[in-house]
Amino acid sequence: MSVPSSASPEQARLILVVGPSGAGKDALIERARLALTGDPRFVFARRIVTRPPAAEDHDTLDEQAFAEAEARGSWLLSWRAHGLCYALPGSLRDELAQGRIVIANVSRGVIVEAEALGVPVTVLHVFADPAILAARIGARGRESAAEIRMRVSRAQAMNIGTARLVEIRNEGSLDHGAALFIQAIKQVAERAGAHAE
Description:
Blueprint: E1 13-18, H1 25-36, E2 42-44, E3 48-49, E4 59-60, H2 63-71, E5 75-81, E6 84-89, H3 92-97, E7 101-105, H4 111-115, E8 121-127, H5 130-140, H6 145-153, E9 164-169, H7 174-196
Parallel strand pairs: 1-7, 1-8, 2-7, 3-4, 8-9
Antiparallel strand pairs: 3-6, 5-6
Helix pairs in contact: 1-7, 5-6
């Protein structure tokens, strides 16, 4: 799908979706992707993970291939978490160069690194009460009780540098959370358009 003729590199934005396990990031991203399909301003990044595909939609590499690609500079961003390797593909550089808005689920630990890419960054921090997080993680059936407790108790400081921070409490219905999430994405696009005028 082509970018509108009015798009310019100055309109490029990175929207980084962060938050604890169980906050509902993937569900909100999928709702937004479906709602914004057909709008050429937006690109939803598909992550590369060193884990076989499961409920989360991603591309898979083994650790050796991941490390080799990382050494070649193939990733836009890469990080480690929960014993796995994650990355965003380098092809997203072309999308940003065309003035697109890239939405990606990342670790909060790469926010400052993302800012070094030279495009404005908005951080959408999705969160929920710890009891809700634990219930959601347990429902996935991937982690033991001890692993669930560790994930819920894992509180990271978030260094956002110069990024704009938007907090999204995702404790109600998926429809409600998705509405807040999509509204935040559209506001980023509106500001990008205003900046380019």
